[in-house]
Amino acid sequence: MKLIKKQDRQNDAKAGAEGSLVSSAIDRRTFLRRSGIAVGGIAAASALPLSMMRKSEAKAAEAAEAKGEIKTVRTICGHCSVGCGIIAEVQNGVWVGQEPAFDHPFNLGAHCAKGASVREHGHGERRLKYPMKLVNGKWQRISWEQAINEVGDKMLELREKYGPDSIFMTGGSKHNNEQSYLITKFMRFWGSNNQDHQARICHSTTVSGTAAQYGYGAMTNSYNDQHNCKSMFFIGSNAAEAHPVAMQHVLRGKENGAKIIVADPRFTRTAAHADIYVPFRSGTDVALIYGILWHIFENGWEDKEFIKARVYGMDEVRKVVKNYPPDVASDITGTPKELIAKVAETLAKNRPGTLVWCMGGTQHHHGTANVRSYNCLQLALGNTGRSGGGSNIYRGHDNVQGATDVGPNAHTLPGYYGLSEGAWKHWARVWDVDYEWLKNRFDQREYDDGKGGKVKPMFTPGIPVSRWADAVLEDPANIQQRSPVKMVIFQGMAPNSQSRGAHQKKAFEKLEALVIIDPFPTVSAVMHDRTDNTWLLPATTCFETYGSVTASNRSLQWRDKVIDPLFEAKTDQEILYLLAKKLGFEREMFKNIKVVNNEPVMEDVLREINRGTWTIGYSGQSPERLKLHQQNWGTFNTSTLLAEGGPCSGEYYGLPWPCWGTPELKHPGTPILYDQSKPIMKGGLNFRANWGVEKDGVNMLAEGRYVAGSDIKDGHPEFTFELLKKLGWDKELTKEEMDVIMKVGGGKPETVNWKTDLSGGIIRVAIKHGCAPFGNGKARAMSWELPDPVPVHREPLYTPRHDLVAKYPTYPDRKVHYRLPTRYASIQANDYSKEFPLVLSSGRLTEYEGGGDETRSNKWLAELQQNMFVEINPVDANNLKIRDGQQVWVEGPEGARIKVMAMVTRRVPPGMVWSPFHFGGHFQGEDRRYKYPEGSDPWVLGEAVNTVTTYGYDAVTQMQETKTTLCRVRPA
Amino acid sequence: MARMKFLCDAERCIECNGCVTACKNEHEVPWGVNRRRVVTLDDGVPGEKSISVACMHCTDAPCAAVCPVDCFYTTPDGVVLHNKDLCIGCGYCFYACPFGAPQYPQASAFGVRGKMDKCTFCAGGPEADGSPEEYKKYGRNRLAEGKLPLCAEFCATKALIAGDGDVVADIYRKRVMKRGGRPQTWGWETAYRS
Fold first, then answer.
1. Is A170 within 8 Å of A409 (Cβ atoms)?
2. Which of residues 42-81 of A touch B (CB under 8 A)?
3. CA-to-CA distance for A897 and A968, rounded, in angstroms?
4. How confident is the model at residue A420 (pLDDT cuts 50, 70, 90)?
5. Could you give the CA distance from residue A678 to residue A693 in angstroms, rounded to a whole number?
6. Residue numbers in A near B171 (CB within 8 A)
7. Which of A408, A569, A615, A725 would bridge A415 by S-S if both were Cys, CB 3.0 to 4.6 A apart?
8. CB of B142 within 8 Å of any CB in chain A?
9. Within an 8 Å CB–CB cutoff, is residue A251 touching chain B?
């Protein structure tokens, strides 16, 4: 019935925001007739003792007037990775109130502008309301049945003509784990690795770099653990705007005495709270870190014992760091020598210290190298694997961690299993489908693997989202798959968050078919001039469905459904089911997943994830355990996340992964990675032994250090059935476990290891002996298989210091990198800095998120940021005759330009400009509001900064370079 | 009897605007009217400080002193409220207020300047507590429900505190004492620039 109410009110919304007070107050009035609302939770507010509350006076007469009971729903914010708890009040199916979750361990009731406005999701009209398609350039409403049939027919037609790889699909980082998993499963069953999500353009380099060093590519500690830091080093992270609620923990840490250092080319709102602000030139992270490490090694401040016992290759790093003495580091970075020395001393004398980074570090063509240099600093200081230390990687979206772990990724199956034959066979067993059937879904031809060999598409990474436009536009002869991409399905993706917008527009127009599955039309619906073969399918927001989401600290939280789907929107899982059914593989895909009214049951999906994802310990977080944690979130300590008493006693909130073994093992989760001070069963961990037992005669296993309570008192490799046998522990496997192991190994149990043992028996026995299933290895300061085993500084492709290119060049061009040719040196060869003298960087605003379609459609948020702008220093502004508030053209070296408002501020240094990346809907000066389906245009539109960002892709992950490019600015 | 007060801790405020949207959410405040705003001083340079500002519910409120129709009143909790039925939308209170708290809707029966609207400390207005009329004119009455203003309850960093002035002062005093232990914040380095 609420649905009808919403539609009745559509006209009010069109009348303008002023009308909204009256129109949406209707639902609230009914609600307000009753008084005496439960005040539970308020008592827990640390800042607000109960004594100051007035007694609630319940009036019986008023209560009787209430038409419906108010239901309280616990759910999780859908914006960033902090994972704030939300208390939603729902009456008659309408979301009537939002109350603080004071006892939630992450946010303690707090919200930023976005979190404080999520109730708007239940009322906002600026949404995609029903399926639509373009007919002769006009949007036409169609039925769901027609939409699914037409999209499915198109897919089958293209498959016939060009093969399964002609379709590229993205998921989103705002899908929950189960939806993300279904998206990747859908594309694998379709027969292609051409799938991806925002992590590619967000923290892909973090994962590739950090996993290559520590074993896992995730945040090592937690936001809450920052209460225990003695120092915090933020580099390329503007937490005050990107993760505002994290700042609650940061500032608590600061008040406990931690020194805060913020390194950023721009004086951010986070820098405003720092003890030391370190400005440096955009894209010179490695040189800055090595400048710091130079002092650390020079003064002998490194943690020698820790390095000897737990780190491989630090001597190689030391050799490279010698090339960055203060003069050199200062010349490259532009940071004063004294400041670099001061940072080094502060970090050395305030241990444990944590290092926080975000997109400022990752979004570079050498992002993986940046990340590895950060981790080298932490390893040198001995900060990794302890409370108050670690690499605290703040992830972006609410479930980008989970979507990275188990969702659509071009380069790996769920759980970082990779794309090897063994990995496919493992997942075929989990999915309970025949491997040969699965294999035959893929294109059987072979293509250049870029290493002098040939490879089938099933075993090679697909097209990454950062390069989808190239996969459409590139000469077919240069693409290592049967055909260029002909059809794109964006299920939760904003193109304005990807670089080279002008290039993307051409790709949109060349596609044979385009499908957008999203609660909002997104910029994908309007930035091109397509006329046909374009479909919009309305999906629900996260509050109209349910499932688990993984916060940045690896905790899984269960998100309850607040309201039923609005308008004609369907949940992503239902859309996937309908599509799979149309394409004819729904029976295989949902073999062990119950489907009710076309909607897969999320609990079953999570159980399947549990059954397959042993590598990162997504196996113990059953839906039942997660729901219990959610219902008892007030029983967890807000610093340690440990439940003290109550039904979850002894467990960590959200069972942060790895939560080893089966749910029955009752592993409590791992709050701090690689922390050997606690036994495995209490959340302790070693570094992962993932790179063999020795390298060129050097021991790769930990020396003399092991996790508390370990029966093996030294380094050891990962557990396999064979190792169990050697140790004589194989006898401890139960008969049922042994049967499964025999089955997995096809009669050869010695081929089975802890990652493929579907019984969880090997893990159980290893942990029984206090050992980590993945072994006890050394962290790697040097990763021999990556470009630059020890990271070195490399100038940006579009550099303002072209004089440094000869000494610090980029990589050579590559013929095949994720199926595509990728340019480096040939771009850097040209000096653009004379014509385009300003560095252009981009970042976030608190009010908006990602491409901003969702948040710019929220009137409470949109009102706060109504203009796209570019920050420019007064020096540059005066030289260019630009005044504050004036419209200017920002022009990029690849020919694109945007018209935006100038904000003259000292926040950016001379020589650099900065813009937020959340805007869209304008294109090179043109307002394209008329392109949106009627009534679905966001309140605020603006130029996308990524229209002018340029070429540049990480040498390991294809991360886009959006943080350092060049531009020029002139008055419009 | 408690006297209600707001306090914004500038050491903690990060200008996230959570308080602003919390207010919009709770009271369905229309576009263009901001009962609460975050003001940033020295924007973009070292020393930058932000503070969230709304009606401060003055003990001797200048708005009340100048109002020609005497529409203001102070509740026993020390919350300054006004009666929109009496308000003539003259804007005199806006002149008087040191914080720019009074807001005026852009379209109304009173031409360009409608009846004044401002922060109520989530305490509604003269109508019956929790009544639809009260909600329509002033927003939700959280105090009557035993709750405190949502802006403060939602504050991302617990910078904005609201409630009994004595308790608010006590919380803030403890924070300042704790920060005193950080020489880089308040002690020698700051005092003597050493």
1. no
2. 42, 45-49, 51-57, 62
3. 9
4. very high
5. 24
6. 47
7. A615
8. no
9. yes
Which residue of chain A comes nearest to B182, CA vs CA? A257
Alpha helices in A664-774 (DSSP H): 721-727, 735-744, 761-768
Residues 267-286 of A with CB under 8 A from B: 267, 269-270, 272-273, 275, 277
**Alpha helix positions (H), A169-284:** 177-190, 204-214, 239-242, 246-255
Interface check for B21 against chain A (CB to CB < 8 A): the answer is yes
The DSSP code for A734 is: -
Interface membership of A972 toward B (CB under 8 Å): no
Residue matched to tokens 């004089």? A803
Nearest to A704 by CA among A676, A665, A682, A741: A676
Residue B159 has phi, psi (to 5 degrees) of -75, -45
Q: Please, which residues have CB within 8 angstroms of residue A410's CB and are 6 or more apart in sequence?
A: A193, A194, A195, A196, A200, A461, A462, A463, A464, A465, A818
Residues 613-672 of A with CB under 8 A from B: none
User: In this structure, what token pair is assigned to residue A488?
Assistant: 């794109």
Cα distance from B81 to chain A (closest Cα, Å)?
Answer: 18
Q: Is B132 on the interface with A (CB under 8 A)?
A: yes
Interface of B with A in 57-86 (CB under 8 A): 77
Other beta carbons within 10 angstroms of residue A656's beta carbon come to 28
| Minimum mean pLDDT range among A26-40, A169-183, B95-109 | A26-40
Taking the C-alpha atoms of residue B113 and residue B103, their distance in angstroms, rounded to an integer, is 9
Res A42: pLDDT:
32
Complex confidence, ipTM: 0.93
A50-64, A272-286, A615-629, A777-791, range with the lowest pLDDT: A50-64
Instruction: Measure the CA–CA gap between B89 and A738, rounded to whole angstroms.
Output: 82
